[in-house]
Amino acid sequence: MTAEITREFTRRLRQLGSAVFVVAFIVAGPLSVAASAQAETPTEFLKDFSNTALTELTGNDLSQDELEARFGSLLEEGFDVPAVSQFILARFWRSASEQERADFIVVFKDYLAQRFLPLFSGASDVELRFGEAQPLQGRDDLFEVPVSFQPADGGEAVRTIWRVRGQTSNFKILDVRAEGVSLAVTLRDEYTSVIRQQGSVAGLVQELRRLIDSGQVRPVNQQG
Predict the structure, then answer these.
(1) Is residue 50 part of a domain?
(2) Residues β-bridged to residue 128
């Protein structure tokens, strides 16, 4: 396994502009209790996040520990991390022990922090345009919400789709697609390949930890 775990996804996003993706990721930032309680639709949920979280990870006076803590809160508040982890591990989730599942979730969050947190320093102002949530598969708790991002420099807008599950005031994000590229599907494909090489979920966890500890997960221009 190489450091290019999400090479196709990040390659496409780099073409679109990493700052745009970072702002998209901030949309899933932590909400205040009051703001969360007011969100009655998936679209309002994402709008509230964008209004309250844009400053969470961009303060110049924040220590690395504080940034990582805020990023962890972002994941916990905005994403259904266990459900995303289960999707990414696919059939290997069913055969994994409870300890292996827990270990994967921990290292997965650390991976996301090292891979994406440094990009926030380059985030710029972006105009967000939210579309109406569309229910999926005839369900009343699963939606796709289109969100487009217009870069401040006047470049081409980036279109994303956010998959959200939940009902009034209890929404969680399951996936984000940028120009057709799914983060969850990309990670699932990459991690499945590693598990086949390593022989188990425990092997995947060990390999991810090695990459994180050696700094190989950081964006290319920030690796030592």
Answers:
(1) yes
(2) 149
Q: What is the pLDDT of residues 2-53, one digit of tens each?
A: 444 445 444 544 444 444 445 445 444 433 444 444 568 999 888 876 665 5
Host domain of residue 71: 7-215
2 domain residue, yes or no? no
185 domain residue, yes or no: yes
pTM above 0.90, yes or no: no
In a domain, 221, yes or no: no
Structure tokens at 111: 């991976």
pLDDT in tens, 138-172: 888 999 999 887 777 777 777 889 999 987 778 98
β-partners of residue 177 are 161, 182
What 3-state class would DSSP assign to 40?
Answer: coil
Could you tell me where the beta strands, DSSP code E, fall in the chain? 126-130, 134-135, 142-151, 158-167, 170-178, 181-182
Q: How confident is the model at residue 87 (pLDDT cuts 50, 70, 90)?
A: very high
| Number of structural domains in the chain | 1
Would you call 19 helix, strand, or coil by DSSP?
helix
User: Cβ neighbours of residue 62 under 8 Å, at least 6 residues apart?
Assistant: 70
Asked whether 175 and 9 are in contact (CB, 8 A), the reply is no
Cβ neighbours, 10 Å, residue 34: 9
Q: CATH number for the domain including 155? A: 3.10.450.710
> Distance between CA atoms of 141 and 62, rounded to whole angstroms?
37
